[in-house]
Amino acid sequence: EAGVTQFPSHSVIEKGQTVTLRCDPISGHDNLYWYRRVMGKEIKFLLHFVKESKQDESGMPNNRFLAERTGGTYSTLKVQPAELEDSGVYFCASSQAQRRTEAFFGQGTRLTVV
Amino acid sequence: AQSVAQPEDQVNVAEGNPLTVKCTYSVSGNPYLFWYVQYPNRGLQFLLKYITGDNLVKGSYGFEAEFNKSQTSFHLKKPSALVSDSALYFCAVRDVRGDSSYKLIFGSGTRLLVRP
């Protein structure tokens, strides 16, 4: 069974440009999450989808970030326009429906804004 | 507010010796607790979790963790460390209350270095 897949693995963009990150969850997982780790600090929650609906987006830092999950399958996270402080590693994770189940993470996308 | 503390940035241990990576948490309800490991250039891998029941839980690669409700701790342990255990370890908590989010709250991570 394929795990959570993220693309690209690395992205270097200039300040003010747009970047779109993609996540393909494990097949059959209704829950999809985005997290990020900035400057070696703790991993912070961004948002949570249940199928195609945003269940919790309390961690989204500002309106430059837009997440979508069309059809309840893969998800995209767009940053527009990117700022220097957006640099970090963006992780996607997915899990089955029950709250007690563990989340499985992708390998992450390392975003560098210069 | 929910939080997780990993008080040690780095833990150094000799191969063959026991290891402990510490984690304490603060949640308003009862917690679900998780440990994840990140090897270089890899994503987070699930190690083990505590949901309910026996306070000692066993996970992958010979790791185990002990849930201590009175001390609000969930320390990760292994009886005999391997050089290949060297990695970054994250403790995480999820609130079990029905109306709360599924989000995980992570600690800042502890780098484990096992020397030969």
Give descriptors for this structure.
heterodimer, A: 114 residues, mainly beta, 7-stranded mixed β-sheet, 4-stranded antiparallel β-sheet, 11 strands, 0% helix, 49% strand, B: 116 residues, 6-stranded mixed β-sheet, 12 strands, 52% strand
Would you give an account of this structure?
The complex is a heterodimer of chains A (114) and B (116). Chain A starts with a strand and ends with a strand. Chain A is mainly beta and 114 residues long. The mean pLDDT of chain A is 94. Chain A has strands spanning 5-7, 10-13, 19-24, 31-37, 43-50, 53-56, 65-68, 75-79, 88-95, 104-105, 109-113. Chain A has no helices and eleven strands. In chain A, strands 2, 4, 5, 6, 9, 10 and 11 form a seven-stranded mixed beta sheet that branches. A four-stranded antiparallel beta sheet of chain A has the order 1-3-8-7, with no helix packed on it. With 116 residues, chain B is mostly beta strands. Chain B is built from no helices and twelve strands. In chain B, the strands form three sheets. In chain B, strands 2, 5, 6, 10, 11 and 12 form a six-stranded mixed beta sheet that branches. In chain B, strands 3-9-8-7 form a four-stranded antiparallel beta sheet, with no helix packed on it. In chain B, a hairpin with a 4-residue loop joins β8 (64-68) and β9 (73-78). The radius of gyration of chain B is 14 Å and the shape is globular. The model of chain B has no long low-confidence stretch (mean pLDDT 92). At the A-B interface, β4, β5, β9 and β10 of A face β5, β6, β10 and β11 of B.
